[in-house]
């Protein structure tokens, strides 16, 4: 059976796609694009910056080595994209075919004001 014939639930056993809405190619943008992929956003390499919930690379390592697949990756948007100026907002990025959807209430900068929507269309 080819990969394209598999339903998403089966593909998710070995591959996950995380679309980061509002992110330019690999970095920058209006969204919570910092997911541990650059040293600029990671800053010092310490346990907090290497936590798999914040760092896409360590999330992948944990999946391969421990069998714990990431359901979400927590992205961060810094004020003016500068770590020293503090966090502007954070957002959990879901894996395809799910999508982030604002609940309609609460602070839109709070990741708990969003949910993984199964009916999301790209």
From TrEMBL:
Organism per entry: Gymnopus androsaceus JB14
Listed GO biological process terms: xylan catabolic process
PANTHER family: FERULOYL ESTERASE B-RELATED
The name this protein goes by in its record: Carboxylic ester hydrolase
Xref: InterPro entries: Tannase/feruloyl_esterase (IPR011118)
Catalytic activity: feruloyl-polysaccharide + H2O = ferulate + polysaccharide
Domain of life: Eukaryota
Keywords from the named record: Carbohydrate metabolism, Disulfide bond, Hydrolase, Polysaccharide degradation, Serine esterase, Signal, Xylan degradation
Enzyme class: hydrolase
GO molecular function terms listed in the Swiss-Prot or TrEMBL record: feruloyl esterase activity
